[in-house]
Amino acid sequence: MNWSLKMGKRYMPTVLIFAFLLLAWQLVVSVFGVREYILPSPASVLNAITNSEIPWGSHMLVTATEVVGGFLLAAVVGVLLGTAIAWSDTAARALMPFLVFVNTLPKVAIAPLILLWFGYGLVPNLLIGALIGFFSVVINTAAGLSQIDQDMLDLGRVFNAPKWRVFVKIRIPNAYPYILSALKITATSAVVGAILGEFVASQAGLGYVIITSQSTMNTPVAFAAIAFVSIIGLSLFGIVSLLARVLAPWAVDGGR
Protein backbone atom coordinates (compact mmCIF):
# COMPACT_ATOMS: atom_id res chain seq x y z
CA MET A 1 0.00 0.00 0.00
CA ASN A 2 2.83 2.41 0.83
CA TRP A 3 4.42 1.67 -2.54
CA SER A 4 1.17 2.34 -4.42
CA LEU A 5 0.63 5.60 -2.51
CA LYS A 6 4.17 6.67 -3.29
CA MET A 7 3.69 5.92 -6.99
CA GLY A 8 0.36 7.72 -6.95
CA LYS A 9 1.89 10.85 -5.45
CA ARG A 10 4.81 10.67 -7.84
CA TYR A 11 2.86 10.35 -11.09
CA MET A 12 -0.44 12.03 -10.24
CA PRO A 13 0.71 15.48 -11.47
CA THR A 14 1.64 13.95 -14.83
CA VAL A 15 -1.71 12.17 -15.09
CA LEU A 16 -3.54 15.39 -14.27
CA ILE A 17 -1.60 17.32 -16.91
CA PHE A 18 -2.47 14.73 -19.58
CA ALA A 19 -6.12 14.72 -18.48
CA PHE A 20 -6.27 18.53 -18.63
CA LEU A 21 -4.71 18.62 -22.11
CA LEU A 22 -7.14 15.99 -23.44
CA LEU A 23 -10.09 17.87 -21.97
CA ALA A 24 -8.89 21.19 -23.42
CA TRP A 25 -8.32 19.51 -26.79
CA GLN A 26 -11.86 18.10 -26.81
CA LEU A 27 -13.36 21.44 -25.80
CA VAL A 28 -11.47 23.37 -28.49
CA VAL A 29 -12.65 20.99 -31.21
CA SER A 30 -16.25 20.99 -29.96
CA VAL A 31 -16.66 24.70 -29.18
CA PHE A 32 -14.97 26.05 -32.30
CA GLY A 33 -16.21 23.33 -34.63
CA VAL A 34 -12.78 22.47 -35.96
CA ARG A 35 -13.02 20.14 -38.93
CA GLU A 36 -11.81 16.61 -38.37
CA TYR A 37 -9.23 16.63 -41.17
CA ILE A 38 -7.56 19.65 -39.52
CA LEU A 39 -7.73 18.59 -35.87
CA PRO A 40 -9.68 15.48 -34.86
CA SER A 41 -11.12 15.21 -31.38
CA PRO A 42 -9.69 12.71 -28.87
CA ALA A 43 -12.89 10.70 -29.34
CA SER A 44 -12.21 10.48 -33.10
CA VAL A 45 -8.64 9.37 -32.47
CA LEU A 46 -9.84 6.70 -30.03
CA ASN A 47 -12.36 5.53 -32.62
CA ALA A 48 -9.56 5.28 -35.21
CA ILE A 49 -7.58 3.11 -32.79
CA THR A 50 -10.41 0.75 -31.90
CA ASN A 51 -12.42 0.55 -35.12
CA SER A 52 -9.79 1.07 -37.80
CA GLU A 53 -9.03 -1.69 -40.28
CA ILE A 54 -5.34 -0.87 -39.96
CA PRO A 55 -3.33 -3.73 -38.35
CA TRP A 56 -1.94 -1.61 -35.54
CA GLY A 57 -0.20 -4.53 -33.87
CA SER A 58 2.01 -5.39 -36.83
CA HIS A 59 2.89 -1.75 -37.51
CA MET A 60 3.75 -1.20 -33.84
CA LEU A 61 5.93 -4.31 -33.84
CA VAL A 62 7.92 -3.04 -36.84
CA THR A 63 8.48 0.40 -35.33
CA ALA A 64 9.24 -0.97 -31.85
CA THR A 65 11.82 -3.35 -33.33
CA GLU A 66 13.51 -0.47 -35.16
CA VAL A 67 13.44 1.73 -32.06
CA VAL A 68 14.79 -0.89 -29.67
CA GLY A 69 17.39 -2.08 -32.18
CA GLY A 70 18.60 1.48 -32.84
CA PHE A 71 18.67 2.20 -29.11
CA LEU A 72 20.73 -0.91 -28.31
CA LEU A 73 23.14 -0.27 -31.18
CA ALA A 74 23.62 3.35 -30.11
CA ALA A 75 24.12 2.26 -26.49
CA VAL A 76 26.73 -0.42 -27.27
CA VAL A 77 28.68 1.61 -29.82
CA GLY A 78 28.46 4.77 -27.73
CA VAL A 79 29.71 3.12 -24.54
CA LEU A 80 32.58 1.39 -26.38
CA LEU A 81 33.71 4.59 -28.10
CA GLY A 82 33.35 6.61 -24.89
CA THR A 83 35.42 4.03 -23.03
CA ALA A 84 38.12 4.15 -25.71
CA ILE A 85 38.24 7.94 -25.48
CA ALA A 86 38.56 7.86 -21.68
CA TRP A 87 41.14 5.06 -21.76
CA SER A 88 43.57 6.59 -24.26
CA ASP A 89 44.44 10.20 -25.05
CA THR A 90 45.56 9.04 -28.49
CA ALA A 91 42.15 7.49 -29.14
CA ALA A 92 40.47 10.67 -27.91
CA ARG A 93 42.48 12.85 -30.29
CA ALA A 94 41.79 10.49 -33.18
CA LEU A 95 38.08 9.81 -32.57
CA MET A 96 36.59 13.05 -31.28
CA PRO A 97 36.94 15.17 -34.44
CA PHE A 98 35.49 12.35 -36.54
CA LEU A 99 32.59 11.76 -34.14
CA VAL A 100 31.78 15.48 -34.02
CA PHE A 101 31.80 15.53 -37.82
CA VAL A 102 29.41 12.57 -37.99
CA ASN A 103 27.11 14.12 -35.40
CA THR A 104 26.91 17.42 -37.30
CA LEU A 105 25.75 15.72 -40.49
CA PRO A 106 22.07 16.51 -41.19
CA LYS A 107 20.30 13.23 -40.56
CA VAL A 108 17.41 14.14 -42.85
CA ALA A 109 19.88 14.56 -45.71
CA ILE A 110 21.78 11.31 -45.16
CA ALA A 111 18.69 9.16 -44.46
CA PRO A 112 18.04 8.60 -48.19
CA LEU A 113 21.68 7.60 -48.65
CA ILE A 114 21.44 5.02 -45.87
CA LEU A 115 18.31 3.63 -47.50
CA LEU A 116 20.14 3.52 -50.84
CA TRP A 117 23.11 1.66 -49.35
CA PHE A 118 21.22 -0.82 -47.17
CA GLY A 119 17.89 -1.11 -48.98
CA TYR A 120 14.43 -0.96 -47.44
CA GLY A 121 13.39 -2.70 -44.25
CA LEU A 122 14.38 -2.73 -40.60
CA VAL A 123 18.14 -2.29 -40.95
CA PRO A 124 18.33 1.25 -42.44
CA ASN A 125 15.71 2.63 -40.04
CA LEU A 126 17.53 0.99 -37.14
CA LEU A 127 20.82 2.56 -38.29
CA ILE A 128 19.26 6.01 -38.61
CA GLY A 129 17.92 5.75 -35.05
CA ALA A 130 21.34 4.68 -33.77
CA LEU A 131 23.08 7.46 -35.68
CA ILE A 132 20.88 10.13 -34.11
CA GLY A 133 21.29 8.85 -30.56
CA PHE A 134 24.82 7.50 -30.16
CA PHE A 135 26.77 10.77 -29.75
CA SER A 136 25.29 11.69 -26.38
CA VAL A 137 26.21 8.22 -25.10
CA VAL A 138 29.80 8.68 -26.26
CA ILE A 139 30.19 12.08 -24.61
CA ASN A 140 28.52 11.12 -21.33
CA THR A 141 30.43 7.84 -21.07
CA ALA A 142 33.74 9.59 -21.60
CA ALA A 143 32.79 12.30 -19.09
CA GLY A 144 31.68 9.80 -16.46
CA LEU A 145 34.86 7.77 -16.81
CA SER A 146 37.09 10.86 -16.67
CA GLN A 147 35.50 13.11 -14.04
CA ILE A 148 36.61 11.18 -10.97
CA ASP A 149 37.31 12.46 -7.48
CA GLN A 150 41.10 12.73 -7.33
CA ASP A 151 41.13 11.19 -3.86
CA MET A 152 39.65 7.99 -5.27
CA LEU A 153 42.35 7.79 -7.91
CA ASP A 154 45.04 8.46 -5.29
CA LEU A 155 43.63 5.61 -3.22
CA GLY A 156 44.02 3.29 -6.17
CA ARG A 157 47.63 4.36 -6.63
CA VAL A 158 48.34 3.76 -2.93
CA PHE A 159 47.30 0.13 -3.35
CA ASN A 160 49.20 -0.13 -6.66
CA ALA A 161 46.01 -1.03 -8.51
CA PRO A 162 46.58 -1.55 -12.25
CA LYS A 163 44.87 0.74 -14.72
CA TRP A 164 42.22 -1.82 -15.72
CA ARG A 165 41.28 -2.44 -12.07
CA VAL A 166 40.88 1.29 -11.40
CA PHE A 167 38.63 1.39 -14.45
CA VAL A 168 36.46 -1.49 -13.26
CA LYS A 169 36.25 -0.59 -9.57
CA ILE A 170 36.24 3.22 -9.67
CA ARG A 171 35.70 4.72 -13.10
CA ILE A 172 32.88 2.51 -14.39
CA PRO A 173 30.65 2.80 -11.28
CA ASN A 174 31.23 6.56 -11.37
CA ALA A 175 30.07 6.63 -15.00
CA TYR A 176 26.73 4.86 -14.38
CA PRO A 177 24.69 8.05 -13.80
CA TYR A 178 26.26 9.73 -16.84
CA ILE A 179 25.63 6.77 -19.13
CA LEU A 180 22.08 6.23 -17.91
CA SER A 181 21.26 9.91 -18.39
CA ALA A 182 22.52 9.67 -21.96
CA LEU A 183 20.50 6.52 -22.55
CA LYS A 184 17.33 8.39 -21.57
CA ILE A 185 18.08 10.89 -24.31
CA THR A 186 18.90 8.09 -26.74
CA ALA A 187 15.60 6.35 -25.96
CA THR A 188 13.73 9.30 -27.47
CA SER A 189 16.27 9.89 -30.23
CA ALA A 190 15.88 6.31 -31.44
CA VAL A 191 12.16 6.92 -31.88
CA VAL A 192 12.84 10.00 -33.99
CA GLY A 193 15.33 8.10 -36.14
CA ALA A 194 13.05 5.15 -36.75
CA ILE A 195 10.12 7.37 -37.75
CA LEU A 196 12.39 9.48 -39.95
CA GLY A 197 13.49 6.36 -41.81
CA GLU A 198 9.89 5.25 -42.25
CA PHE A 199 8.97 8.70 -43.55
CA VAL A 200 11.64 8.50 -46.25
CA ALA A 201 10.71 5.06 -47.53
CA SER A 202 8.94 2.12 -45.94
CA GLN A 203 6.03 -0.22 -46.44
CA ALA A 204 5.27 -0.88 -42.77
CA GLY A 205 5.54 0.82 -39.41
CA LEU A 206 3.81 3.71 -37.70
CA GLY A 207 5.71 6.29 -39.75
CA TYR A 208 4.37 4.64 -42.88
CA VAL A 209 0.85 4.86 -41.44
CA ILE A 210 1.29 8.57 -40.71
CA ILE A 211 2.49 9.33 -44.25
CA THR A 212 -0.24 7.32 -45.99
CA SER A 213 -3.02 8.68 -43.77
CA GLN A 214 -1.88 12.24 -44.41
CA SER A 215 -2.02 11.66 -48.15
CA THR A 216 -5.69 10.64 -47.80
CA MET A 217 -6.38 13.37 -45.19
CA ASN A 218 -7.34 10.70 -42.66
CA THR A 219 -6.09 12.79 -39.76
CA PRO A 220 -7.60 10.70 -36.92
CA VAL A 221 -5.53 7.69 -38.07
CA ALA A 222 -2.40 9.87 -38.25
CA PHE A 223 -3.01 11.06 -34.68
CA ALA A 224 -3.61 7.47 -33.55
CA ALA A 225 -0.26 6.43 -35.06
CA ILE A 226 1.45 9.35 -33.32
CA ALA A 227 -0.11 8.22 -30.04
CA PHE A 228 1.31 4.72 -30.52
CA VAL A 229 4.74 6.19 -31.33
CA SER A 230 4.60 8.12 -28.06
CA ILE A 231 3.69 4.95 -26.17
CA ILE A 232 6.74 3.16 -27.59
CA GLY A 233 9.02 6.07 -26.68
CA LEU A 234 7.58 6.43 -23.17
CA SER A 235 7.88 2.69 -22.56
CA LEU A 236 11.54 2.61 -23.56
CA PHE A 237 12.24 5.73 -21.49
CA GLY A 238 10.51 4.11 -18.51
CA ILE A 239 12.61 0.96 -18.83
CA VAL A 240 15.82 3.00 -18.87
CA SER A 241 14.62 5.01 -15.85
CA LEU A 242 13.91 1.78 -13.99
CA LEU A 243 17.36 0.50 -14.91
CA ALA A 244 18.84 3.73 -13.54
CA ARG A 245 17.10 3.16 -10.20
CA VAL A 246 18.58 -0.34 -10.03
CA LEU A 247 22.15 0.42 -11.13
CA ALA A 248 22.60 3.94 -9.75
CA PRO A 249 19.95 4.62 -7.10
CA TRP A 250 22.22 7.20 -5.43
CA ALA A 251 22.00 9.38 -8.56
CA VAL A 252 18.20 9.25 -8.98
CA ASP A 253 16.18 11.84 -7.05
CA GLY A 254 18.88 12.19 -4.44
CA GLY A 255 18.83 8.45 -3.74
CA ARG A 256 15.15 8.37 -2.67
From TrEMBL:
PROSITE patterns named among the record's database cross-references: ABC_TM1
Keyword Membrane: yes
CDD domains on file: TM_PBP2 (cd06261)
Protein name: NitT/TauT family transport system permease protein
Membrane topology annotation: Multi-pass membrane protein
Stored Pfam families: BPD_transp_1
Similarity section: Belongs to the binding-protein-dependent transport system permease family.
Keywords, ordered alphabetically: Cell membrane, Membrane, Transmembrane, Transmembrane helix, Transport
Sequence ranges assigned to domain ABC transmembrane type-1 in this UniProt record: 60-244
InterPro entries: MetI-like (IPR000515), MetI-like_sf (IPR035906)
Domain of life according to the entry: Bacteria
Subcellular location, record wording: Cell membrane
The organism of origin for this protein: Ottowia thiooxydans
Transmembrane segments: 67-87, 99-120, 126-145, 175-201, 221-248
Keyword Transmembrane helix: yes
